[in-house]
Design a protein that fits this description.
This protein is an alpha/beta fold. It has twelve helices and twelve strands. The protein is globular, with a radius of gyration of 23 Å.
């Protein structure tokens, strides 16, 4: 990798500084980030100080924090050596999970890598990494179970990772199409009648799914796949009467599905398909007195062979750090009966 620890052997075991050398100055500049913002993020999240000395970085702090920060910096530098870029999310994921993985060559490689701890999905536009232990377990289960539930607050990657796995399986030929769905339920507002044809009326509800796909597929390819029906994005109500075979199927915002809708959706599963159901118990927008199909499915399907359940908390939020703190504040208020 071209990085060496330069701490003299005569220094005591509990030394307060670790010195690392990075031979490519251009990559070191990118590692540090504009105005050293990447180093500042590592400092903030690991509790160390990082000082730049020419082509070296000095990591100062207690032993465990230094070792963690040094491992993160080595992993990020290796990422740059491999021709990849670094974002704030990549740094956060490296700190939470360790060094990013190299690119797998096939679906089987990716399943094996997730099972052995190396975590990166390869889509047509970018690599996607599990950034927390809960996310890692979730992706593993999506590869190994025919039906998976992802339950937890907003911003924890439930839908994003599910769509990434779906695109990965489609690219590898493991499935022939991707079907994305969500209930067309308004989030506490009455929007009235929307103008346009059927597609124009439902697209606002489906926009989060389009956003996820846009991150993983080039625009022209995505448009072609939509026209050829190899990608379908449709409201939950449109699933009735269908059998979805050889498909990767995602139901987003499942807390807004009624019990009847949920049973209908779950029984659409056909041969060679995978099905993922994501939702947040705290954001039910159904009319008062209507029970959530997600809660009922969770109760009934626990322990059923082939079905996995993964749960997320505010600690798994990978959006802005403030989102995690907001979720924690609401959870604390609910615990007090507020």
């Amino acid at each position: 990798m071209g990085i060496s620890a330069l701490t003299p052997p005569t220094r005591p075991e509990d030394m307060v500084e670790t010195l690392m050398e990075f031979p490519d100055n251009r990559l070191l500049i990118e590692l540090c980030g504009e105005f050293d913002r990447n180093l500042a993020q590592v400092e903030h999240q690991t509790g160390v100080h990082v000082l730049r000395r020419g082509n070296r970085l000095a990591v100062i702090g207690d032993r465990s924090a230094r070792e963690q920060a040094a491992a993160v910096l080595r992993g990020l530098y290796a990422r740059l050596e491999a021709g990849k870029h670094i974002s704030a999310g990549d740094i956060d994921g490296s700190i939470r999970m360790g060094r990013p993985a190299s690119e797998p060559k096939s679906l089987g490689d990716q399943i094996e890598m997730f099972q052995t701890g190396a975590m990166e999905l390869r889509t047509r536009k970018k690599g996607v990494e599990a950034r927390t232990e809960a996310q890692k377990a979730y992706v593993q289960n999506l590869f190994t179970h025919e039906m998976g539930f992802g339950i937890g607050p907003a911003g924890t990657g439930k839908t994003y990772l599910a769509v990434a796995v779906g695109v990965t399986m489609f690219i590898s030929g493991a499935v022939e199409k991707i079907v994305l769905s969500r209930p067309a339920v308004e989030a506490g507002e009455r929007l009235g009648f929307l103008p346009g044809d059927m597609k124009e009326k439902i697209d606002p509800y489906m926009q989060p799914l389009y956003d996820a796909l846009n991150d993983f597929l080039p625009a022209k390819q995505m448009e072609k796949m939509l026209v050829e029906k190899r990608i379908e994005i449709a409201p939950l109500a449109f699933m009735r009467g269908r059998t979805l075979s050889n498909a990767f199927v995602v139901l987003d915002e499942a807390q807004n599905a009624t019990s009847m809708q949920m049973k209908m959706f779950l029984t659409r599963l056909g041969e060679g398909s995978r099905m993922v159901i994501t939702g947040d118990r705290t954001q039910v927008d159904l009319p008062r007195g209507t029970s959530s199909g997600l809660a009922e499915a969770e109760r009934i399907l626990k322990g059923v062979k082939g079905v996995s359940f993964n749960y997320f908390t505010s600690k798994d939020v990978v959006r802005h750090p403030l989102v995690g703190r907001i979720i924690e504040a609401y959870e604390a208020d609910e615990a007090k009966g507020g």
